[in-house]
Design brief:
Layout (H helix, E strand, L loop, with lengths): L1 H13 L3 H4 L4 H6 L6 H10 L2 H12 L7 H13 L3 H10 L4 H26 L19 H31 L2 H15 L4 H13 L1 H13 L5 H13 L3 H9 L5 H36 L1
Helix pairs in contact: 1-5, 4-5, 6-8, 6-14, 6-15, 7-8, 7-12, 9-14, 10-11, 11-12, 11-13, 12-13, 13-15, 14-15
Length: about 290
Amino acid sequence: MIISVVVFVKILTVLDLIQYVAMPLGPIMETMGLPVEFGLVWAAAMLVNIYSSLALIPSIILMVPTMTVEQMTILGLLILIAHSLILETKIAGQCGLSMTVQVVLRIAAAWTAGLLVHHTCQTFGFWQEPAVILFEAKAVSSSFLGWVWGECINLMQIFVIVCLVMMFNKIINALRISDAVGFVLSPVLRLLGISKQATNIVIVGLVLGILYGSGIIIQAAREGRISHSDTFSTMSLMSLAHALIEDTILLSLIGGSLWGLLGVRLVLAIVIGAVINGVYSRTHHSAQLQKGTA
């Protein structure tokens, strides 16, 4: 899938069509201070996965001026919050939730995060230094074979980096650092109205990933061990913030701030989770009152 995306972008580059394909997301990217061309990177992340967007960055970065830490942090947040939408919203659908609501929630949350970081950085003037991109394209060749060789090197860099990050994540889990993360987050999750039974599930999703957490949720929901309210709250929270360690480190390698990627994403997910829980509780309470009156 990643190779097909890279070939597609090469065809667009040769035909000088990049800006037209990225145009639908162009106005949104500009509101966050990003070049229009990066709309294609975010689109690849939303439609395919994180790795396809990473594979595009070396070639896209050659078309734009020097990127700042602020801009790459915003791009990283967009990818982290709204990626693999087809696959991951289908998982939400298996939990009995609206796929449309989940897609809108994630795209809106990503845009909100980008706007917040952009305006905050512009107001206070931080993260304006040039970003250091670890797998930036080293050279450009006009020949077809030269392009193939260059892309093979880029993909191999990404492969090695992803393997190292995954190994690091496994070491963290072996050292039970993930348990410490869960211990710190569990009181916050309970404040969001997530029950004790669902809290453990959310922690799995936050640390290991939405595929692990959703698998437990689907089974628990079918067995009636968690309520629909818990299912909605946990899936919404996990859709905005999952695989916090592995994915955050991976996206920091494109030049964004590690703490910006982690902190903004987690805080935004908690705030949105609190709003969702409040709205859901009021709606459910009103429905119960109307049912009782009837």
